[in-house]
Predict the 3D structure of the following.
Amino acid sequence: MKNLKLKAARAAKDLSQAQLADLCGVSRQTINAIEKGDYNPTINLCIAICKAVDKTLDELFWE
Amino acid sequence: MFASIGLAVGIIVGLIICVLLAKFGNKDGAVKSKYDERQEAVRGKAYRYAFYSVMIYEALMLVLEIGQIALPLPSYILHFAGIIVGCIVLAGYCIWKDVYWGLNNNRKRYAVIFLVTAALNAIPVVPMIAGKTTLDSGWLNVIVLIMLAVIGIELIIKEVVDRREAEK
């Protein structure tokens, strides 16, 4: 399932996938895979993403 | 005796060159490439497929040997080809799943290393093709060149596919 909330939060921060990937210490393709719903990140990566886009885990990853 | 020492020195020099090339190819000067959690997971799968491929290849070689079916190449070249089959499967799967390049890899520098490796492997092959030497070990270089060609072509195809998807 696509993670549109992450995509929207990233866009709101005016970050590209590559920029968010750099902030989280992962590859651009990994951010792309999370947004497309192809990859379920670990809790550590979820927290790193949340900190980068100033959102909570609930806001980004809870349905 | 001297041949063994020469072989040992050759292997050590080869390993040192590999370490120096890895340091040159990585942005942070590290010897090892760094991967994120998704890349590590997918690469694990790639190693598994590569292992299965080498196992199947070696089983096939075993059957051919037991059946006393002679192949036109010496056995050490055929076993080396098995290693290369594993490398091609590993690299191919990694490229297709976007996990070939590490986080700290400098792609341009790796492209240079790739081309230099291809050129060095082409040197012993040219006289072999021209028929000036019948040295069997030239086949090792041919096999490496085939692997480099397959990886190179797959990298280009993946780049084209990614660009088309980005345009969409």
